[in-house]
Amino acid sequence: MLYFLTILCIVAADQASKTLVMRSFSLYESRPIIDGLFNLVYVTNTGAAFSFLSDAGTWGHWFFVGVALLAVVGFTWGWWVWARTNRLLTVAMALIVGGAIGNLIDRLRFGAVVDFLDVLLGSYHWPAFNVADSCICVGAGLYIVAAMLVDRQEKNEGGKA
User: Model pTM?
Assistant: First the structure.
């Protein structure tokens, strides 16, 4: 239940935040929140992270739809087979799947992903991102940590036999 509830909450938060931005901003409008550090902005991205393949056209759109669907199915199957009893892995995989679904909804509805979180650090300007992107990144980090902990636990249990 934790897996599906986490996914539902992520998708709801992602879609609600994007809807709020689309209703409150004009496309490409930016508003400083913490001057020189953080802005809210309304932009779209037809590609992946850092606008990778954003100029790929129709095949790129369907490629990213396919990747998202594979991620959702693959991680859900993996969770069911391998990780259902591990809370940290459950949350990690749910974060990744929830983020993938949030961005997949945008691709299917708008043909692009809505981004709005804009971080600056000195002269460096990080590409805009969204709640779904954040969940995918945090989920991937947690997944790595959880998988290492599971591996360590299995090695320790194997050594005791």
Answer: 0.88
Q: Which residues are catalytic?
A: 115, 133
Compute the distance between CA of residue 71 and CA of residue 140 in angstroms, rounded to an integer. Answer: 12
Residue 48 CA to residue 67 CA, distance in Å, equals: 10
> Which residues in 48-83 are b (16+ Cβ under 10 Å) and which e?
beeeeeeeeeeebbeebeeebeebbeebbeebeeeb
Question: 22: domain range?
Answer: 2-160
User: What's the total number of domains in the chain?
Assistant: 1
Find out whether 61 and 43 touch, Cβ atoms under 8 Å.
Answer: no
Reply yes or no on whether the pLDDT at 93 is more than 80: yes
pLDDT one-digit tens code per residue, 76-86: 999 998 877 88
